């Protein structure tokens, strides 16, 4: 006998859901509302989609750090950039031997002359 689909684990079945699951029954959580606390922090209120569970909870979403700086930064927002390790910095700045192709150079299309 084929089992019926589980609507609690189907994000399209019951409207807007997020990847955050109920900590009790592991069904998908549905975002009910949210409010901005600061430009880098938001409180989010969830409801379990399992009707037999009914758990509701508050979660937080916080920006930890920037990876690439914004081209149009908001002066009110101060986010640290991701720390770059010494090894990463050395790799970025090391001179390249033009006669030695890089591992993924063949994955990029060649530049057209002119």
UniProtKB/TrEMBL annotation:
Residues 90-114 are annotated as: Disordered. Residues 90-99 have a biased composition (Basic and acidic residues). Residues 21-63 form the Zinc finger Ogr/Delta-type domain. This is Zinc finger Ogr/Delta-type domain-containing protein. It comes from Novosphingobium pituita.
């Amino acid at each position: 006998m084929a089992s019926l689909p589980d609507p609690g684990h189907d994000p399209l079945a019951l409207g807007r859901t997020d990847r955050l699951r109920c900590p009790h029954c592991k069904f998908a959580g549905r975002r009910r509302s949210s409010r901005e606390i600061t430009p880098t922090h938001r409180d989010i209120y969830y409801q379990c989609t399992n009707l037999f569970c009914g758990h509701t909870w508050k979660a937080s979403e916080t920006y930890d750090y920037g990876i690439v700086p914004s081209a149009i930064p908001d002066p009110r927002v101060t986010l640290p950039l991701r720390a770059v390790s010494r090894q990463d910095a050395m790799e970025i700045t090391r001179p390249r031997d033009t006669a030695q192709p890089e591992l993924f150079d063949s994955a990029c299309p060649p530049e057209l002359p002119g």
